[in-house]
Amino acid sequence: MEFIQNNLDIVYFVIFCIFIGIEVIANVPAILHTPLMSGANAISGVIMVGAVIMMFQVSPTDYVTLTVGGIAVFLGALNISGGFFVTGRMLKMFNTKK
């Protein structure tokens, strides 16, 4: 409980990002999901920037926050690269055969 009280602004920011993410994902029609995947996965870049900013603001001895930030950076990078990889494979389906 003390962690939440000390980092209330970060908790509010995370909750706000969750609601924004749900709105962005929910308003994309199913037929457009695959073509927009690379752009939508670029939103993970915002997660990575937020995680890095969070990691710069904490003390070097706060291992819990540094670990959560590191996991967020890793998962954001994984989501971005996976999204671009899948989109690249999808676009190859539309190339003409030689």
UniProtKB/TrEMBL annotation:
Location relative to the cell: Cell inner membrane
One Gene Ontology biological process: NADPH regeneration
Catalyzed reactions: NAD(+) + NADPH + H(+)(in) = NADH + NADP(+) + H(+)(out)
Topology class, membrane: Multi-pass membrane protein
Membrane-spanning residues: 12-32, 39-58, 64-88
GO MF entries: NADP binding; proton-translocating NAD(P)+ transhydrogenase activity
GO cellular component, one term: plasma membrane
Name listed for the protein in its UniProt record: proton-translocating NAD(P)(+) transhydrogenase
Source species of the chain: Marixanthomonas spongiae
Species classification: Bacteria, Pseudomonadati, Bacteroidota, Flavobacteriia, Flavobacteriales
